[in-house]
Amino acid sequence: MAGAVRLEHDGALARVVLSHPGKLNAMSRAMWRELRDVFAQLQGAGTACRCIVVQGDGEAFCAGGDIAEYDGFRFDEASLRAFHDDDVWGGLQAVLDCDIPVVAAIRGVCMGAGIEIASCCDLRLAAATAQFGAPIARLGFPMAPREAELVARVAGEATARQLLLEAAVLDGREMKARGFVQHLAEEGDFFASLEMLVQRVVALAPQAARANKRTLRALREQHDPQRRAAALQELAGAYRYAPAAEHREGIAAFLEKRRPRF
């Protein structure tokens, strides 16, 4: 079984579920492609969705890549490059390009591919007992360059070096202390904490949230030669929301001392 990435809808919430039974949700090549397609679908689906939760099926988030597939492509440079540049980065870029707020709900193991996917999310809630790592040096290979840059940027270079160079495994409390995880919960309180976090996101102005994501992405990508033109165009239009109904409603609700109706 190659595993699957499921998309489930619950009102304004979408759940993207990494599912690979018996393999702690390890990512297969098919799952990377499905991750790309699911996020492309969500990005193009309009404004009904206000929050996306990425979670693992069962007790784990994601144990990394599906090592059982590796013999088929890892030992040839061209096929290895295609795997990372097309399959893996295609999935990760689709998450990064999504304008909808994305929450990673992390329980159990979050290794390798799991920490890369979590790094693409905007907010990360982890169980205190969750385990984070990227012990791929034990398998004899490094992290691909764009994936390493992503993890180092979000988790911090010192943490990335520790995960990669000593195969360290850090728990949820430690990753919270280091700033990678914004929200921490005890195992028994995890789903209640997730619900409260999602409700805080859903209650806010959805177009403002999307604009914030586009701005933050453009500020980063203005230094990327391949994405610079689009990033500068986004920044140039930063105030086009001025006449928007959502903008008017938020200000009016504050002045009238009532809850906004977004």
Please, could you describe this protein's structure?
This protein is α/β, with parallel strands linked by helices and 262 residues long. The protein folds into two domains: 4-202, 2-enoyl-CoA Hydratase, Chain A, domain 1 (Alpha-Beta Complex); 206-255. The protein has ten helices and nine strands. It has helices at 29-43, 77-96, 113-120, 145-155, 157-165, 172-177, 190-202, 206-221, 228-236, 245-255; strands at 4-10, 13-19, 51-56, 102-106, 109-111, 123-127, 131-133, 169-171, 183-185. The strands form two sheets. A six-stranded mixed sheet has the order 1-2-3-4-6-9, sandwiched between helices. Strands 5-7-8 form a three-stranded mixed sheet. β3, α2 (77-96) and β4 form a beta-alpha-beta unit. The longest helix is centred in the N-terminal third of the chain and has 20 residues, at 77-96. The protein is globular and about 60 Å long. The mean pLDDT is 97. Pfam families: ECH_1. This is Enoyl-CoA hydratase/isomerase family protein.
In short:
The chain has 262 residues and is of the alpha/beta class.
Q: What's the structural blueprint in terms of helices and strands?
A:
Layout lengths: L3 E7 L2 E7 L9 H15 L7 E6 L20 H20 L5 E5 L2 E3 L1 H8 L2 E5 L3 E3 L11 H11 L1 H9 L3 E3 H6 L5 E3 L4 H13 L3 H16 L6 H9 L8 H11 L7
Parallel strand pairs: 2-3, 3-4, 4-6, 5-7, 6-9
Antiparallel strand pairs: 1-2, 7-8
